[in-house]
Each structure stands twice: as structure tokens, then as C-alpha cells.
Amino acid sequence: MSENGCKHFQAYVKENSLDTYRIIDAYFSACINRDAREKKALTCCCFECGSYGIQLYACLHCIYFGCRGSHITTHLRAKKHSIALELSHGTLYCNSCRDFIYDGRSRDIAAVNRKLEAKDLQKSLAWTPWIPTPKETNLMLANPKRRNVKANETLGLRGLINLGSTCFMNCIVQALIHTPLLSDYFLSDRHECSAKSSMKCLVCEVSRLFQEFYSGSRTPLSLHRLLHLIWNHAKHLAGYEQQDAHEFFIATLDVLHRHCIKAKAETESANKSSSSQTTTTHSNCPTQCNCIIDQIFTGMLQSDVVCQSCKGVSTTIDPFWDISLDLGEAHGGATPKSLIDCLERYTRAEHLGSSAKIKCSTCKSYQESTKQFSLRTLPSVASFHLKRFEHSSLIDKKISTFISFPVEFDMTPFMSEKNNAYGDFRYSLYAVVNHVGTIDAGHYTAYVRHHKDTWVKCDDHIITTATLKQVLDSEGYLLFYHKNILEYE
Fold first, then answer.
1. pLDDT in tens, 211-250
2. In the beta sheet, which residues pair with residue 432?
3. Where are the beta strands (DSSP E) in 124-171?
4. Which H or E run contains 335?
């Protein structure tokens, strides 16, 4: 994006100038004086629902305040207006682009307004962008050598040595390494761990792997340290036989999640000068955790059980790291042909039948009911597990049915609140894990998106370029999608 926002914002400025933006930002975002704060307190609420909550938007074309989500977007769409200002953080939003935009001129105005706000409140600025000092500028000029990342750059690509039936681990590591938010976290050296714990910490090992992948070296890596740590912390995966890639993925997230909590607790303990009697407890529940794993992978699944007698609804909400989708025949003999089919089937209401009656809290008796899953909140990375392996007392078999999956798709139809859902739920494919062969003798490979339009195939130590058609024609076992637009709370 240019320094002057998108073409819609440029057209807006040409027609209206930046005067409206200057006033709205000064009175309803920065609040530069007492008068501005009073005006915001009295008038700044959603015109539809009257809410004074966070993330209100102001239309810059007319006088209108609306909540994030359907209220502001419905107004902008109906009035054919494009530009709005998010008032909590003073960020410009273009409804035509369906994205936040950056404009250097507006940022300069906002900086002045925030200085006036800080001066009036007699407080320091909470945040200012980094602007290099003359000394820093001279250092950068004196050291001009920088790595120029080109379209055909191989930085970040490394083959992985197969240590004996460890292809299941190699393909999951490739998918995690190419998860954008995860690489941002580890390459910015955000993880902190005590020296005593670092040798046993899986997060430290993963952090080291990111450094290795982006070191510029092209020789294949050995994951023996990672494998040993996983064996120590996930005993059910210990051994030299082939393991399931999906099971390894979930176990890895679980151990990373637990180690992030432990490292944070140790760091906080070391930084505190509290008494020896003070104790702190930490929950392993993802809903109470803000570690990097849960920030990226955790979504919330809603389950609604509806009593067929009184139509009373019992709702439960649980966290998930991925969604496992059935591929076998459904009632009526239909089998899914695509990822969308699988998700529609997953979120379809299911009649539980007379043999599975549930006690209704309203009727106070056991009644037949229906159960339906929907997605309450979505993670930044949506991972799907296509259940290709069937295990029963009689036979174990693999389902090799071709299931098509899109490069991009919108998850809105599967949300619990489709009409009032906040935000943008479009996702883009960035990794696919495949299993070739039979359930007894198979091999895992992975396709990962290296650059925007560049895909590679990772087959242990061998890395080759791939076409998008090859990716989409593959069988697909684990599918990884990244949210196109990331939102903040």
C-alpha cells in the first residue's frame, strides 16, 4: 500500500480534503481537550444499537457512528460510502477494500492530536512510532549491506533429514515454520526462558529452528533434539514406528502451549521481588491463556442442543485447535466432495434419536433433541483434519477419496452469528500435509507457500518447486489456512 492509502481514500481526500478527518480524530479519537471529551461521552454511540463499547467507527462522509461489524458496514454499503475512522486507535478503514489503510498525511495529523491530548491530560504519550535518530541513521548508512528478499529467494527453506520414519514430524515442522504469525513471533526473539529450563523447553528448541531456517544455510537439518523433547513430553509418541501427523501436530501445540505458560511463570517470578509465601497458579485451559499458540490457533466451538419438546436450547462453548472432518457416508448415502461439503455437514443439525435422549433443563425430563455445531470465534490460523484413517475392531482402512479444497474461502456461513458476526472471515491456504500409500506403509509430504505466488513441496530433505495445480490436486490430509485480515481487540 502507498503512503497515501488506497485509491478510494485518495478520491475521498480529493473531494473532501482532510478537514473532516482532522475534526473527527481530534474530538472522537484523540479527544484533545475537555470539550472534546464531553462531546464524545454524550454523543459517541452506535446509531443502531446505542452501544458505547470499544471499536466504534465514524463515517467520514456523513454524521454516523456504528459498531464494528454489521452496523457500520451496512451503513457504508447502503450509502455507498467508503471511508470510516476506527475511534479506539484512530485507524482508517476502507469498506471498498475491506481493509485498514495507511495514509502518511493522516498519521501526521493524528500525531499532533495525540500530543495535544497528552498535554491536556498531563500524561505521556502511550506509544509513538520509531523514528531513527541521526546516530541510528548514520549507522544504517555506514552498514548498507542488507539481504534483499527477491521473488525466487530460498531464504527460509531447509530440507529435514528423515531420522527413520519421521516424515510425520518433518511435514508438521514445515507447516509451522511457514505460519506467518509464528515466524514473526520467533524471529523477533519474543520468547524468554530461564537458563535452567531452556535445554528442556520445546519453545526454545522451536525458536532455535526458526533461526536455523532463516540463517541462509541450505543443508538439511536434523530434528533429533526436537524429537527427543517431544518423546519426553508426549510419551504416547515415543518410539521408532511411523506416527500420525495430525496426532503429532496436536501434541506439539499442547507441549508448546504448556511450555509457554511455564516460561512466562518463571520469567514473572524472576522479575518479582515477592515474598517466598506468594504462590501463583496457572491454568492450562486455552480460554484463560494468552500464549502465542492460543493467540494463533485457538478458536471457540459452539454446540447447541435443542429439545424437540419445548424447543429449549442448551449451549456449550469449547476451545479448539483444529477441526476434524468426517469423509465417510452420511445419512442418505451422500459423501462429501469438497472441504465446503465437509464443513456444511459438520455444522448441520443432527437428530440424536430416541436412544440418546438428553435431560432437558426446562422440561425436567429426558427428551429427544437435535445437536448442532457452529463456530463462535475463529482463530488466526484455521487447520482442518480430513479423517482419512478409519479404525475399527474388524479392519483399519484409509479413505483416499479426492476432496477438493479452495485457495481462498469465507468462513462466515459456518459462524454461530452470521448476521452480527464481527470482522472479516476470509482465509487463504498456506500449507497442505499429504499422506501417500496405505495405512500400514505410507509416507508424509507437505506443500507450503513460500512467497505469495510460490509453492514448494517438502519431501524430507528434498525441496522442489510446485505449481498451485499440484497443490490443489493433492489428496490432502491436513489443511492450513491463514486469516486474510487480522483484527485487534
1. 999 888 889 999 999 988 888 888 787 777 778 899 999 9
2. 447, 479
3. none
4. none
End-to-end CA distance of the chain: 23
Which set of grid coordinates corresponds to residue 96? 471498498
**Annotated active-site residue in 59, 94, 167, 171:** 167
DSSP 167-219: HHHHHHHHHHHT-HHHHHHHHTT-----HHHHTT-HHHHHHHHHHHHTSS--S
Residue 259 grid cell: 511450555
Among the listed residues 221, 291, 216, 281, the one whose alpha carbon sits nearest the alpha carbon of residue 261:
291
Exposure string for 58-97, b = 16+ CB within 10 A, e = fewer: bbbbeebbbbbbbbbbebbeeeebbbbbbbeebbbbbbbb
Cell numbers of 54, please? Answer: 470499544
Q: How confident is the model at residue 277 (pLDDT cuts 50, 70, 90)?
A: very low
DSSP label at residue 321: S
Q: Which residues are CB-neighbours of 16 under 8 A, at least 6 positions away?
A: 60, 61
**Please, which residues bridge with residue 313 across strands?**
306
Told to judge if 360 belongs to the known catalytic residues of this protein, a careful annotator would answer no
Is-contact 72 86, C-beta < 8 A?
no
| Distance, CA of 62 to CA of 334 (rounded, Å) | 51
| Model pTM score | 0.71
Is residue 289 annotated as a catalytic residue, yes or no? no
Instruction: Find the catalytic residue in 44, 45, 61, 443.
Output: 443
Beta carbons of 344 and 323 less than 8 angstroms apart: no
- Which residues make beta-bridge pairs with 410? 426
Does pLDDT of 159 surpass 90? yes
pLDDT of residue 148: 67
Q: Cell 471499536 maps to which residue?
A: 55
